[in-house]
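Table S7 (text form). Paired inputs.
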Amino acid sequence: MTKKRIVYLFGAGATHAEIVNSTNKIDENYLDKYGLLIKGVSKRIMRKLKGDPWFDDKKDVFAHPSGSTNIELLISLFVSNMIPDEHISKLKDFVEKDIQSVLTPYRKSKFYLHKALFELHQYTKRKEELAGIISLNYDDVIDTAYRSVIKKKPYYSFSSSDSNKKNLPLLKLHGSFNWNNVNLFGQKKYIPIIPLGANKNYLMPPYSFIWSNALELLINADILRVIGCSLNSNDLGLIDLLFKAHQQRNSKINIEIIDFQRIGENHRLVEEYGFLPGFINPLEIENGLLPPKEIADYNTGNPFKTWIRSKAQSELGEKINNTKHLKKLM
């Protein structure tokens, strides 16, 4: 049996799924306070900005201070139009403080979906090779799960001399809040995050190296599993990366969309990205692995959790009872 090379692409929805899975109090009010999708983060930041003297001086920039602004897109536009760095830094600081305020140590102690994913691959090595992780998230949820289960330091691909090069790649395309003391070309440096769409920053180290390694991962992957990533037009750089990988291959990349899907409809990505023919509807993954009712429910559903549970049941059967993290899904 030929093993499939698996690469994951994580967006904000993956960490958001951990938030949803960590409580029984899911409703609009809870998600408004603690949700990590960009809509929720933006609304909270706009509310905080309204009480900030800096905002009062610059509020003409914000078209909808009531909360409909996409804060990541706004930062990207500031970068692209050479708005003063102090304004960009101010907004980035608000983004970091908001996300970190949600991801408290107590709340993160309840997270186990990412850990369950890594644990799953310890049981599926005969059929699947976990080749690497690509993440758009600034938080350290996946980093923590990596260290906890794999028991090694992630290979972030900061440079060709990265001491962890033999370890599983964890490529964070937009940076990370915890990159404060990175060894880069013999010097300890702070690596700032880059927002969606700020393409010119991808050419600067270490991002140039990270993105080129992400391209190589995709070119050599058999399956790309997309979890919690909307692939909207704001992130043209990522879409361009997928397109480049597709052009360099002799065959299409099978792209499994682990997301919500309404019964009887194609997923949005299948409809919008016809130039990437490898997209597979959630309900068509592995000939119907996902339960239709569970991933059709946008109010209480959790496709990330549902997929791991369904995959584990399919691959492990009763062996799940002997696991540390996967058994919590049952």
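Next pair, protein 2 of 2.
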Amino acid sequence: MRYVSTRGESPPIGFAEAVLAGLAPDGGLYVPETVPDLRAELEDWAGLDYRELAFEIMRRFCDVEPEALRALIDEACADFAIPEVVRTVPVGELHVLELFHGPTLAFKDIALQFLGRLFERLLARAGRDLNILAATSGDTGSAAIAGVRGRPGIRIFVLYPRGRISPLQERQMTTVLDANVHNLAVEGTFDDCQRMLKGLLRDTALKDRLRLGAVNSVNWARILAQIVYYVHAAFEVRRRTGRPRVRFAVPTGNFGDILAGWYAHRLGLPIARLVLATNDNDILARFFRTGRYASGPVARTLSPSMDIQAASNFERYLHARFGGDPAAVRAAMATFEREGALRVPPGPDGAVDPLFTAGTADTEATLAEIRRCVEDDGYCPDPHTAVGLAVARRRLDPDEPTIALATAHPAKFPEAVARATEAPPPRHPTLERLHGMPTRATAVPADIGAVRDYLEAHIPAEGAAAQGGCP
């Protein structure tokens, strides 16, 4: 399998190169050159456990030796609190796919536990080191740190918007004091963090000299690992209900999680509809309703991981929507960067995309959904999951069971849960251990030059030792 840039001005490369590069030199995102049709194989995989299913799907996209790939998957799944990694539970009329049983209690663990180990293997094979950049709106940072802390050949630099993530999300990152972990508290928004990350990775000379890579969902391996739980959940709900086609309701801000579902559909999984759910930062919901993708000011909400106005993975969708035409992608992204908006014409049926339906849940709707779930179903969702549940309820179809993705444990957002229920918020021992621990972070302005200076000061010259305990 080869990978091509969405902007078409970088040569096709292999899987390992795409993983280590993250972003393409031309500023585009890597996508598989072809997407296989796996409809025949999917039926044979219905009885596989999560690890076996992950192996069958992922080996179609990567050139890692089969036994090594199996070992990577097994190791990545070992740190989850439940042996099945994910589970689907009935909540009223919905089926909730719990993705938060990993070490940092968020869905990002599923991909980043795998990616950290994959990085280590590829770097050892190449005899090199890698300095990873990550921009986080809340959960990616801690999950990425958990995946690479102490690993030889890797340093990680996490940019997060100071004061715009939950206190527990911040403590999950800043209490990690390993020498190869650097947390940068940016005086700005997540979009500022993401803009600077992309700008640094687009500087080819800097990227090569500092051996920079990316762990955000711009990295294709993140999307690949997330495809697996869509297939797993669809099989489980089909066994439970007898219905062949399902819907997925996905709370999203950066379009990475729902993009994995879109790829699962392209592989042949019988997904009837992808229900895209946003909070007040509704750029994606507006696009799928109107065809116009237009950014605005970032609103602060109860679901901070979705407080985004420029979704990185949207470019991968555009590439497919434009028939793989990189010139059309370049033109559209140039328009967006210049004007803050772009437009995609509707399809032959007049819809922007018949697979997607979109909705928004504001603060009051989010609180009401948390309250309703607790009172009616005895189930407590976190505010991101509540956004997805609230929108999902407006799109129910008795013939197509809806699977709603639960992206984080509610204990990560005690203030929102307490506000909704007027009861003591849920707790989790992983988070309780963070209280009173020392923290470390460096405040930086939302200025790419300041971040570049920090990297220059903390990344040794090529050839220097890059062990997990390195400075």
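Confidence is low (pLDDT under 50) at residues 465-471.
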